[in-house]
Amino acid sequence: RDLLEGWDVTVVVTYRRVFEWMLSTMKEMNGSAAEENNECTRWPKDGGEAHPRTWPLIYEWIRSSSRPFFGHPRHRKTMTLRYVHMDGTVQNWGEGGVAVHALNLHSKQHITQQLMCDFIDDAPNSCHHLRNQTVNVARNVRNMAWFNYNDIIFAAAERGLISADTQTQRTRIEMVDEMVRYHRDVLNKTIADLPLNCPNDGHLEYLLAISLATEAKLMPEWYASPEGEAMHRSSFQRIAYERREFCNIDLDRLFQDVTSWEGLLQSMKKTRKKRKEGRQK
Question: Is the pLDDT of residue 65 over 90?
Answer without folding.
Answer: no
